[in-house]
Amino acid sequence: xxxxxxxxxxxxxxxxxxxxxxxxxxxxxxxxxxxxxxxxxxxxxxxxxxxxxxxxxxxxxxxxxxxxxxxxxxxxxxxxxxxxxxxxxxxxxxxxxxxxxxxxxxxxxxxxxxxxxxxxxxxxxxxxxxxxxxxxxxxxxxxxxxxxxxxxxxxxxxxxxxxxxxxxxxxxxxxxxxxxxxxxxxxxxxxxxxxxxxxxxxxxxxxxxxxxxxxxxxxxxxxxxxxxxxxxxxxxxxxxxxxxxxxxxxxxxxxxxxxxxxxxxxxxxxxxxxxxxxxxxxxxxxxxxxxxxxxxxxxxxxxxxxxxxxxx
Amino acid sequence: xxxxxxxxxxxxxxxxxxxxxxxxxxxxxxxxxxxxxxxxxxxxxxxxxxxxxxxxxxxxxxxxxxxxxxxxxxxxxxxxxxxxxxxxxxxxxxxxxxxxxxxxx
Lengths: 312, 105
Hints:
A: 2-enoyl-CoA Hydratase, Chain A, domain 1, two-stranded parallel sheet, globular, B: alpha+beta, five-stranded mixed β-sheet, 2 helices
């Protein structure tokens, strides 16, 4: 049997305004792309499972938690990868990672834009170095694709967030979109607490987690390029915009990025809490960023970015 | 890990609008079912991999109940189990059958 399954594997269809956060990887892919256009590569029937999990008596998943394939977005072909956050927290293993590496290598050859639907806690500890190598291979393949002129766009909004090696890969993308529910951080809350104590970061403090790693804060910081409501249409619109706006990976872009990061560190480096950072960025201290409605946040963030753009 | 296999004959051919379908997820209390149209039209097979041992009789009963509905001919159901309860297994098998019929995009 061919390793390309068509029509694609079934998942319950999402309603137009259904939650991205609550959806499965397959639901997100099918709903995001033009109807019926998704063709899966190395699908579940190929049974490309992890060779490492049996050692730990752990169950495998037929797609190893990574859905990859091709489809159309507004009629244009894209390659797409989506992590299933409910299988091993969406963490990267050898096969999981290899599917994304392969997709990115294909993108460089075919000059086709890539969407990565992140949802990952990082690397599977059971796969250890094999998982770390997978991260490195993906980063190299991603940067090779970008050097070939391919936009690689990341979408972050799942319950597992985008952590560890996944966040490093996200950092290599041409553009990122995030929802309020999404989280993005190299170190997760539990890791920080384990290493530096609860005084540094209390992993049970959910408001702290979201105001530090959550989508709204990341967007205000400029760590992501677009902010989306927790719906498929919102992420789709963001994906289309980011593909169209994807910067070329050249020295001028790197220089601008370095300058922007240096400025951020200079302006915000002494802030002990996100709430302090928001004030430095120009947010009225009477405004409660986490609690204002979506539209109000979008308007506020837009005004702040406009003000800063004028100032530059 | 336990590997269980059940084969049932005397099935009516399943309504199959596609060659394969996948439902569910391998997570705590859940399972995935990959269904493929690869068998003779009067047979169905359920192949199970589960980390929870000692429930052979329960699996046999759940699968027998599913097969007793008699409309899964031609299909192999391959299961990776994350420790699902019997009722979740039944629901996923039924869902997989509907997915093959094209009831879900």
